[in-house]
Amino acid sequence: MFVAVDGYKSTQNPVILFVGVATFILCGFEHCIADMFYFSLGELWSAQAVKIILVITLGNAVGGILIPLAKK
Questions:
Q1: What value does the CA radius of gyration of the chain take, rounded to a whole number of Å?
Q2: Whole-number Å distance between alpha carbons of 50 and 28
Q3: What does 18-70 look like in DSSP terms, one character per residue?
Q4: DSSP designation for 12
Q5: What DSSP state is assigned to residue 2?
Q6: CA atoms in the 13 A half-sphere facing the CB of 2
Q7: Average pLDDT over residues 55-69
Q8: Are 49 and 39 in contact (CB under 8 A)?
Q9: How far is C-alpha 53 from the chain's CA centre?
Q10: For residue 4, what are the contacts with CB-CB under 8 A and spacing of at least 6?
Q11: Handedness of CA 24, 28, 32, 33 (dihedral sign)
Q12: What mean pLDDT comes out for the span 53-67?
């Protein structure tokens, strides 16, 4: 997701957003906001679901921190 947004900021080409998001989805990566929606839609909230969301959120946060650091 960072690569898609950063690519758009540097080129102002919206195609990069679509390619970046599509790649993220096709690779099967989890996204905490989307998963919270799915758990809510399916009424599947439980202690296990909260643990899963926390792990996914931590993974998203680590990726969101490390990728920009690697770029610098």
A1: 14
A2: 20
A3: HHHHHHHHHTT---HHHHHHHHHHTT--SHHHHHHHHHHHHHHHHHHHHHHHH
A4: -
A5: H
A6: 12
A7: 86
A8: yes
A9: 12
A10: 16, 17, 19, 20, 21, 23, 24
A11: positive
A12: 87
What lies within 8 Å, CB to CB, of 56 at 6+ separation is 30, 31, 32, 35
Identity of the amino acid at 34: A
Q: Is residue 11's pLDDT more than 90?
A: yes
Tens digit of each residue's pLDDT (9 = 90 or more) over 27-56 = 888 778 888 888 888 888 899 989 988 998
pTM: 0.65
- How far is the C-alpha of 21 from the C-alpha of 37, rounded, in Å? 18
Q: Judge whether 35 and 44 are in contact, CB under 8 Å.
A: no
Written as one letter, the residue type at 15 is V
